[in-house]
Amino acid sequence: FRGAFFIGAAYGKQTVNASKLENITVAGTAYATTVNGELNNSFFAPHIGWRWTWKSGFFYGMDLGWQLQSGSRTAITYVSDAPAAVTSQLEQQAEFINLRADVQKTANDLGDKGIPLFTLIQIGWLF
Description:
- The protein has about 130 residues and is of the alpha+beta class.
- The protein has helices at about 85-90, 95-110, and strands at about 5-25, 30-55, 60-80, 115-125.
- A four-stranded antiparallel sheet has the order 1-2-3-4, covered by helices on one side.
- β1 and β2 (about 30-55) form a beta hairpin.
- The radius of gyration is 22 Å and the shape is elongated.
- The relative contact order is 0.27.
């Protein structure tokens, strides 16, 4: 392992999109409704790893770290095939409120918790 071990860090921004579809019933009619969540955040990821490099410049390696989230922002939108006259009633249905809350909770969980970072194989060429 001589000369192959390294300690590093990464910083970046990411966007995660998710959606959930359910049929919401208003006045006896079911309307397909999709709630979309978009999470934007920054992350800092300290990691350790091993990288072996040949004289030719070819290298391979692996690393392990933890991705720490910060500055998360979530935008929730929805699309429904309900007519405009029914939209306000749709938004007041318990099914819709639960659907929106579920997507919001999932986005918040992703934006608040750190996640493991593991690269099984790195390959490349240093020139």
